[in-house]
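Forum > Structural Biology > Help requests

Title: Can anyone predict the 3D structure of N-(5'-phosphoribosyl)anthranilate isomerase?

Hi all, first post here. I have the sequence for N-(5'-phosphoribosyl)anthranilate isomerase but no way to get a structure on my laptop. I'd be grateful if someone could post the structure tokens.
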Amino acid sequence: MADIRVKICGLTRPQDVDALVQAGAAYAGFNFFPKSPRYVTPVQARELALDCPPGLAKVALVVNPDDALLDEITAIVPLDFIQLHGQETPERVAEVRARYGLPVIKAVGLSSEDDLPKIDAFMAVADQLLIDAKAPKGAKLPGGNGLPFDWRLIAGRRWPKPWLLAGGLTADNVAEAIAMTGAVQVDLASAVESAPGVKDPAKIAAFITAAQADPVPRF
Ligand SMILES: O=C(O)c1ccccc1N[C@@H]1O[C@H](COP(=O)(O)O)[C@@H](O)[C@H]1O
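Reply #1:
Sure, ran it for you. Structure tokens for N-(5'-phosphoribosyl)anthranilate isomerase below:
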């Protein structure tokens, strides 16, 4: 079994936590972006986070949050990471890390080579990066759209900090995505749902099995 760490994002119900634990996920993501079908309030997230056992890291996904929102979340939700998934600057990433004393995962959206310098800019200040597909113009959500990017953009690249691969990952494509990019951590939201915002335990288990399957040797 390959040592691939899986983050499942957008949990909304207690049974979602159970499904992650059963399947062996490494991170559980709670989505605080109000326009998302996966949105939870801080009170809901607190209940879910309290159910997470040690070894399942709890991540707050926020989009361009102000301090008031982060104060509200961090006051009641026990967290291991803050995931910034908007247009935050490197300075804002550093500020959030310092103010809340939590490691920050910064999402960077890619659609072409022109986006690659952003990775280095954030690598200097974030604890981890989440390399995702850039949301198409006019998309309602800045992430969670189930769209992959061209993995060849990052094939063969190595960075000095941990990072997660995201964007349109499914049980059918995750092995190829890992083989092409060298990712050891993967993140997804939409492909493990039976409807937007409703996680499916069978899909979660199938995804994690596929992500952690030993790679087929290429001759
Ligand atoms: O999932 C959402 O609703 C969402 C909303 C706003 C910002 C980010 C969001 N999701 C993040 O995007 C990745 C990739 O999603 P998908 O697998 O392509 O659907 C997801 O894991 C979240 O980290």
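The pocket of LGQLAAA5 is lined by residues 9-10, 29, 31, 33, 36, 38, 61, 63, 85, 132, 141-146, 166-169, 187-191 (CB under 6 Å). The chain is about 30% helix and 20% strand.
Shout if anything looks off.
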